[in-house]
Amino acid sequence: MSTRTYDGETAQFDDSRLYDGVLTRRVVAFCIDYLIVGLLLIPFAILVFLLGILTLGLGWALFGILFPAVALIYVWNTLGGPNQATTGMRIMGIRLDRLDHKPVDGLLAVVHSILFWAGNVILTPLILLATLFTDRKRTVHDLLLGTVVTRSDR
User: Fold this and answer.
1) What is the per-residue pLDDT across 22-55, written as a single tens digit (0 to 9) for each?
2) Measuring CA to CA, which residue among 83, 74, 76, 80 is closest to residue 35?
3) Number of other CB atoms surrounding residue 39 within 10 Å
4) Angstrom distance (rounded) from CA 138 to CA 147
5) At residue 145, does pLDDT exceed 50?
6) Among 6, 11, 112, 150, which is 20 to 30 Å from 70 by CA?
7) Confidence of residue 6 (pLDDT cuts 50, 70, 90)
8) Using CA atoms, how far apart are residues 135 and 148, in angstroms rounded to an integer?
């Protein structure tokens, strides 16, 4: 893929081939990632259970934040890592890129995930319909953060 420049700005993300099948790949990657998070919950849940026994039940309050904590740590380490993709995204051949060409760091990855979940809680999954009308198949939280999901195999 060649990169053209317009007034000193790269047009790397203008190639429409980068977005072929991205929507379907994002959905499947999401399912894979949350299966992985579910599997990661098992050892942590055992630890919280044992902690609850040791603290006469006080430690069991951690069950309320266990899923979000494990999910955010997973996103921080994978999406915010050098591959800029979670394990599900890597399997599906997509990655998260910033439009300013800087690498995605852990904080941006976590904010991206939190905005996704907050948008779904507030606006229901209908926010995903925005991808049908936006350029580059971007979701609402992609638009807010200046990110785009592209095919990593192209």
Assistant:
1) 999 999 999 999 999 999 999 999 999 999 999 9
2) 74
3) 10
4) 8
5) yes
6) 150
7) very low
8) 10
